[in-house]
Amino acid sequence: MKPLPLGVRVAAGLAVTALEQARKLPQQLAGLPLTVVSEAMQLSMRVQQHVTELAIKGDDVLSGLRPAEEEPEWATFDEDETPVTTSQETPADDPWEEEERALAEVPEFLPSYDELSIAQLRARLRNLSLEHLEELLRYEKDHAGRPEFIGMLNRRIATVKTQ
User: Fold this and answer.
1) What pLDDT is recorded for position 114?
2) In sequence order, what are the residues at sequence separation of 6 or more whose Cβ sits closer than 8 angstroms to the Cβ of residue 121?
3) Checking phi first, is residue 145 left (phi over 0); if not, alpha (psi -120 to 50) or beta?
4) Where are the domains of the chain?
5) Is the pLDDT of residue 103 over 70?
6) CB 128 within 8 A of CB 122
7) Does residue 106 contact residue 139 with C-beta atoms inside 8 Å?
8) Quick one: CA torsion of 34, 37, 43, 46, rounded to 10 degrees?
């Protein structure tokens, strides 16, 4: 028997494939909304990734043109807060006398200064005069000498002087 021409065989194969796909159609229609949503979400995520990559590249280029602030005045971080350190001076004969002397030196306008965290102090700085700020700076340098407190007080003094 002689084989049928190629066109006829292809047409028969196409008809069988169309019939098979028509039988699967109800199952595919049930999953179609989920497929469409899934593909839309994937596309959205790819777009977000590309936008983020472009922003990072832009940040890299622009960082050379405009240097970032070392530490903005308003920024606070957990690592900025350090535990209260005790003085390493030689102890006095009477520990009560040393405590009374330390309490007497605390600025009168802010008696709880030594117990304040850096964030708590920052919240109170706007209400203080230039003289009080300078007094706090001297007190901090003479006692605990915490760099983050000294830096914050110096920045606030500079701000008040320019206003």
Assistant:
1) 83
2) 113, 149, 152
3) left
4) 1-68, 78-162
5) no
6) no
7) yes
8) -80
Nearest to 150 by CA among 130, 132, 136, 162: 136
Least confident piece of the model among 28-32, 48-52, 91-95 = 91-95
What is the three-class DSSP state of 115? helix
Reduced to 3 states, what is the DSSP secondary structure of residue 90?
coil
How many CA atoms lie within 13 Å of 12's alpha carbon, on the beta-carbon side?
6
| Alpha-helical regions (H) of the chain | 6-63, 95-105, 118-125, 130-142, 147-162
Distance CA 72, CA 57 (A): 24
Give the lowest-confidence range in 23-37, 86-100, 106-120, 144-158.
Answer: 86-100
How far is residue 159's CA from residue 17's CA, in Å, rounded to a whole number? 79
Residue 161 CA neighbour count, 13 Å, CB half:
9
152 within 8 A of 122, measured Cβ to Cβ: yes
For the whole prediction, is pTM greater than 0.90? no
Q: Are 78 and 41 in contact (CB under 8 A)?
A: no
66-77 tens-digit pLDDT: 665 566 666 666
Q: What mean pLDDT is predicted for residues 109-134?
A: 87
Q: Does residue 134 carry a pLDDT above 60?
A: yes
